[in-house]
Write a structure and sequence with these properties.
By secondary structure, this protein is mainly alpha-helical. Helix content is about 55%, strand content about 0%. The chain is built from 17 helices and no strands. The longest helix has about 30 residues. It starts with a helix and ends with a helix.
C-alpha cells in the first residue's frame, strides 16, 4: 500500500521542481518564455525572504532568554512576594547579598593569604586591676630584715633623743601630747641632740599650753636656741598653742587634717604626732633620712623629689602594719650607716642588693650616739652652722642672755 503513495509523492515533487525551475521550458504547455521567467524569479525571491526571516528569528532567539526560564523566574518572584511581606523580602535579599559579599571577601582573603604569607606583629597588653595591683620592689623584705639586724642595738641618736624620749612621762595625757607636738616642731632642720637640749630647757620652765601662752617670745627664743630657724619657730609655737587653746580645748587635734591646720605643722609631723601622741597609724612619717634611703634602695617606682612624694610612693605597696616601724628603722639607719654624704656601704649588709651601693664607700667607722641620754650642749657640738649674719637683729643671732641659759642646762 505504501508503494503507490511513495510513487505519487515522487511524481508530484518532480513535477513541481520542473515547473518552478527557471531553466525548464515546455513548448507544448502553451506558456511563453516571459511568463516562466517571472514565475522563477518570484519563487527565488520568496525563498530568499524565507531564509532571511528564519536567520533573523534564529539570531533573536539566541539573544533573548528562553521563555520557559522567564516564566519560571516570574513564578518564583510571585511566590516569594505572596509568601512574605515586602519589607522582609527586601531585608532577606540584603542579608543574602551581604552574606555573599562576606563570602567573596573571605575567599579573596584566603587567596591573597595563600599567595603571600606575612608575619604580623603581636601586641600584648595587660590590664591593671586598679588599687588592688601593687608593685613591690625586689628584695625589699630581705633588705628590711637586714636593716632590722643592723638596728638591733638601738644606739642611734633617734633611739635616745627622738620625739618619743623628749616628753614628760609623769605629766597628764594632754600635756604629754602637747610636748610631743612641740618636740616635732623643733626637730625640723635640727639634729636630735639640739632638739633634746631645747626640750629639756622648756620642760624645766613648765612646758604646757598655759605656760607657753603666758611666756613672751624673747624668753621662748632663749629656751629653744640654737635650733634651726628658731625665730620662725617661736612664732609658730605661739600661734599653734593659741589655736589649740581656742578651738581644741587645750589638747592637740586628733586628726591629720586638724594637726595640719596648726602653723608650722606639715604632713610628716602630723603623721608622727598621730602615731606617738594618739597611738594611731595614719600614714608614714617621711623625713630626710626616709626620703634618701627609700630612693637609694629603689623602694619608689621612680626617683622622688620631695618627702611627700616618697610617702605616697611607699604607702602604695608597703604593708600598713609596717608604717609605724619604718620611720624609726630608717632614721636610725640613716644616722649611722646610710649617711647623706659618704655612706658606709662597706659595713652595710645590703651592699649586694642596694642599687646605690659602693658609689662612694669611705673607710669610716660605724657611728654611735653618746652613752648618756641627757645631752650637754657645749661649744658647737651638734649645732647647725649659723644662718645669715651674726649681728644683732639678723637671723641666727643668739638672743641676749643666751649664754647663761645654755650653761644652766
Amino acid at each position: 500500500m505504501l508503494a503507490p503513495v511513495r510513487s505519487f509523492c515522487v511524481y508530484m515533487f518532480r513535477r513541481r521542481v520542473r515547473m518552478n525551475s527557471p531553466y525548464f521550458t515546455d513548448s507544448t504547455s502553451g506558456l511563453d518564455t516571459s511568463a516562466s521567467d517571472s514565475m522563477g524569479e518570484s519563487a527565488v525571491n520568496k525563498g530568499v525572504r524565507r531564509l532571511r526571516s528564519r536567520m533573523a528569528q534564529g539570531l533573536k532567539s539566541e539573544d533573548d532568554p528562553p521563555k520557559v526560564k522567564a516564566e519560571v523566574l516570574e513564578q518564583s518572584i510571585s511566590l516569594l512576594t505572596h509568601a512574605q511581606p515586602p519589607i522582609e523580602t527586601v531585608s532577606t535579599c540584603k542579608k543574602t547579598t551581604i552574606k555573599v559579599k562576606e563570602e567573596a571577601v573571605d575567599n579573596q582573603a584566603l587567596l591573597t593569604s595563600s599567595r603571600k604569607t606575612r608575619r604580623g606583629r603581636l601586641k600584648v597588653e595587660y590590664e591593671e586591676e586598679g588599687a588592688e595591683l601593687k608593685r613591690e620592689p625586689c628584695d625589699w623584705r630581705t633588705q628590711l630584715s637586714f636593716i632590722r639586724e643592723m638596728r638591733s642595738k638601738r644606739d642611734a641618736p633617734v633611739d635616745q633623743m627622738g620625739a618619743e624620749k623628749c616628753y614628760d612621762t609623769e605629766a597628764p595625757p594632754e600635756v604629754r601630747r602637747y610636748q610631743v607636738l612641740i618636740s616635732l616642731m623643733l626637730s625640723s632642720q635640727t639634729k636630735d641632740l639640739v632638739t633634746a637640749g631645747a626640750m629639756q630647757r622648756l620642760r624645766e620652765h613648765d612646758l604646757s599650753v598655759d605656760a607657753i601662752l603666758n611666756m613672751d617670745e624673747e624668753t621662748l627664743g632663749k629656751l629653744i636656741y640654737p635650733v634651726g630657724f628658731w625665730r620662725t619657730k617661736v612664732k609658730y609655737i605661739k600661734q599653734a598653742t593659741a589655736l589649740i587653746q581656742q578651738e581644741f580645748g587645750g589638747d592637740i587635734p586628733d586628726t591629720v587634717e586638724g594637726l595640719m591646720r596648726l602653723p608650722g605643722v606639715g604632713p610628716k609631723m602630723a603623721h608622727l604626732a598621730m602615731d606617738i601622741a594618739w597611738n594611731q597609724v595614719s600614714g608614714i612619717g617621711v623625713d630626710t633620712h626616709v626620703h634618701r634611703i627609700s630612693n637609694r634602695l629603689g623602694w619608689t617606682r621612680k626617683e622622688t623629689k620631695t618627702p611627700e612624694e616618697t610617702r605616697r610612693a611607699l604607702e602604695e605597696w608597703l604593708p600598713r602594719d609596717l608604717w609605724s616601724e619604718i620611720n624609726w628603722l630608717l632614721v636610725g639607719f640613716g644616722q649611722q650607716v646610710c649617711l647623706p654624704v659618704g655612706p658606709l656601704c662597706s659595713v652595710c649588709v645590703n651592699q649586694h642588693t642596694c642599687p646605690a651601693a659602693h658609689r662612694s664607700s669611705p673607710s669610716k667607722k660605724l657611728k654611735t650616739s653618746p652613752a648618756s641620754p641627757t645631752p650637754q650642749v657645749k661649744g658647737n657640738l651638734g649645732q647647725e652652722k649659723p644662718r645669715g649674719n651674726r649681728r644683732k637683729g639678723k637671723a641666727g643671732a643668739p638672743p641676749s642672755g643666751q649664754t647663761s641659759v645654755l650653761h644652766s642646762a
